[in-house]
Every structure is written in structure tokens, then in C-alpha cells.
Amino acid sequence: MNVKEIVGAVEDSVSRHDEWRGKECINLIASENVMSPLAWKLYNTDFEHRYAEGMPGKRYYQGLSYVDEVESACIEMGKKLFGAEFLDVRPISGCLSILILLSSFAKPGEKYVAPSVPAGAHISQAEFGAAGVRGLEVRHMPLNEEEMNLDIDKSRKIILEHKPKLVNAGGTIFLFPHPLRELREAADEVGAVLTYDGSHVLGLIAGKQFQDPLREGVDVVGASAHKTFPGPQGGMIFGNCDEHYRKIKPKIFPALVSNHHLHRLPALAVTMAEMIEFGEDYAKQVVKNAQALAGALCEYGIDVLAENKGFTKSHQVIADVRKCGGGAWCAESLEGANVILNKNLLPWDDVKNSSNPSGIRIGTAEMTHFGMKESDMKHVAELIKRVWVDKEEPGRVKEDVLEFRSGFLDVKYCFDDMK
């Protein structure tokens, strides 16, 4: 292929992807969402071409007066949403937000306590992730598998025994609020900072439907802006202590972030405003949909975890699909039916078996954003059951997915939906 043919092929791939994922699939990836049309429109601006180091009003480049206005709007609305005294939108990912916190509060060789990856933590919390890159000595808080939550008694013992500089709650498998007040007490006994990975549940926190980390004892929250919080891909950090922020700021710039991808900021500002206006209704529906989907899957004989706890209080549903064919087969077979979700390690899995784990993680944030309600989730469960339980040919199920999805093409809970 010559250069023009390659460019044409790339353009074609993007066009086909947009049609497929944006209009023809039921997307249940728990870490994904879509922006509103207005946020999407403002994502593609001249901000993309510009460079800004430092803080609004204190830049190392000229020509940024309008960028300063937009970034300041993001900060002020974010502080209002999360009840924070400081909020920084310069981290360009949730993972980088966590690395910034690790770098701010623990030195190489010091001890750090967090959940393990099979117990629900993001890979950034592991020895092979950002914690390892920082050179921290990692100790893991165990999960109570029946409760699908941190085992607070055992976690407390680990904190008191190892006396870490930093304790982190939150994670990437996140069905129920973590016991933050109890972790706060244990962290205080050893003088540790308590942080929280709110990447997955940030939209639920903004909508007051999950937990309130800062009011429950967390010092600083690091998060993504594009999961249950339906903004542009990127990160943020917020908290209430000026002393903590003084430690964080130099780790953001000049240490780990130079230019912070300015095209995100207008879209983030719109999303912040939409979450102030519509976030509570949206978050409530996300959780209702997850509970409805979990219940319907369970009725079809699929082993959904935490049935004894009502399955979930977040956007996530976790299923053990070993009897259906395993995590890899279940995810791949549904992709053939245009239902998109991901395989996932479960607490009893060996992290080395990540290519074919026991579990599936399902999220309701994006399809809720497109307007689906509880009855629609029950239909989604039926489509999944036809592939996993009935072993129906995915291509046949795909025909029904296409028809069903055609009724959910417009983003709701946004300013564009007020017309």
C-alpha cells in the first residue's frame, strides 16, 4: 500500500469503528462511557494544538488566557461536585493520578497497603504496576469473598503490623462502598495517609449514590474522568488538606505532567456542569440498571457474585462464568453478538491466569447514558443468556442486538437532551 492508501484505510477503519461501537453494539465495558454531543463538539478545538505548563494564571507559556478560564471553570465545578477544597485536572489518566499520589506520600522502599489485583485493585496498585515503578514495598488487604468487600479485620491487622506510609482503598472491581471510616482509624494509628482510587465510581460519587470518600475519612482521591463519570479520557485529584496539596503539586508539574492535553478541558467543563445538573438522576439509574441486570442474569442460572448482598451497589456486575465456558470464551462469544464486555480476574484466580480468568465484569454506565432502564437491562440479560447458556450462534443473536440498539442512539442526562 502507498501512503495515500494507508491514510484511506485508517479513515475507513475509524468510520467503521464509530458505526459499530457507537450505533450497533451494546457496550457493557465497566470502564467506558460516552460524552454528550456538546462535550464531544468542544473536545475537537484549537485547544488540542496548545501547550500549558503550570497553573491557571501562573503559566510558563503565553497565549493561554482562554485556557485558564476553562480550566478554572473545571476546577470550581469539580470542587462543588465533590465537596473538595482543592481539585487538579492536570493528570492525563486515572493511572497517572494514582502514580502521582504514590509519589507524593511514599518514598521508594517504604511500605504501601492496597487490595490485590484479583481482589479488585487496579494494576497500578500492584508490584508490577505504578506501585512497583515507585519502588514501594506492597502489602495487600484481603477480600472477604462472601461479602465482595475488603475484610476490614484482616486489613486492619496488616496495616498495624506493617505500618505503611500510605494506604489505598477503591479499585477496579468495585461492587460495594469500602469501609473507609475503619481504614481511617487504622491509618491514623500508624500515621499513614489514606487515599482512594475513585476511577470507576466517580460518577456515582458525584451523583451521591455510592459513598462520600472525603467525608468518610479519605485524605485524597485520585480518579479517572471517563467511566461512570462520562467525561473525556483523563484524570483528576482532589482533597481537603492544603498540606497534602503542597506535596502533590510538584509531583504533577514538573515531575510527571508537562502539558496536560488541553483539548480535554472544554469537554470536561461541560461534563462537570451536566453532572451538577443531571448527575443524581443518572447515577441512580446506573445503579438500578446494574441491580436489574444482575438479578436477571442470576435467574438465568448465571453465577452472579454477591447475591446475598443484593449483587451490587455500583455500576458493576461480576459473574463467575467457569461453568459457561470461562472468561475468555464468554467475552469473545458475546463480541460476535455485538455485546461488548471484558473478562476479569476473580479473587480466587492466579494473576498469571489473566488470559482466561474465571470472571466477567459488566458495567451499565454507558448504556444508561443512552437511556436504557431496568426493563431494557432484563432484555440485555436475555441476549447474554442466549449465547452463554443456550449456546445460540452469536451471529443470530447479533441480529436482535442490532434491532434493539437502534432504539438507543441518543445520549441522555445532558444539555443536548433538554431541547
Main attributes?
4-stranded antiparallel sheet; alpha/beta; Aspartate Aminotransferase, domain 2; 419 residues; Aspartate Aminotransferase, domain 1
CATH topology assignment of the largest domain: Aspartate Aminotransferase, domain 2
Q: Any low-confidence stretches, pLDDT <50, length ≥5?
A: none
Instruction: Report on the biggest sheet.
Output: 7 strands, mixed
Classify the beta-strand content into a percent band: 5-15%
- Structure class: alpha/beta
Query: Quick one: CATH superfamily of the largest domain?
Result: Type I PLP-dependent aspartate aminotransferase-like (Major domain)
How would you portray this structure in words?
- This protein is an alpha/beta fold.
- It contains 14 helices and 17 strands.
- It has two domains: 40-271, Type I PLP-dependent aspartate aminotransferase-like (Major domain) (Aspartate Aminotransferase, domain 2), CATH 3.40.640.10; 278-418, Aspartate Aminotransferase, domain 1 (Alpha-Beta Complex), CATH 3.90.1150.
- It has helices spanning 3-24, 37-43, 65-82, 94-105, 130-133, 152-162, 180-190, 202-206, 242-256, 264-299, 327-335, 365-369, 374-388, 394-405; strands at residues 26-27, 54-55, 58-59, 86-88, 111-115, 137-141, 143-144, 149-150, 166-170, 193-197, 220-224, 235-239, 303-304, 316-320, 339-340, 342-344, 359-363.
- It has a seven-stranded mixed beta sheet with strand order 4-12-11-10-9-5-6, with helices on both faces. It has a four-stranded antiparallel beta sheet with strand order 13-14-17-16. A two-stranded parallel sheet has the order 1-15.
- Helix 2 (37-43) crosses helix 10 (264-299) and helix 3 (65-82) packs parallel to helix 10 (264-299).
- It is globular, with a radius of gyration of 21 Å.
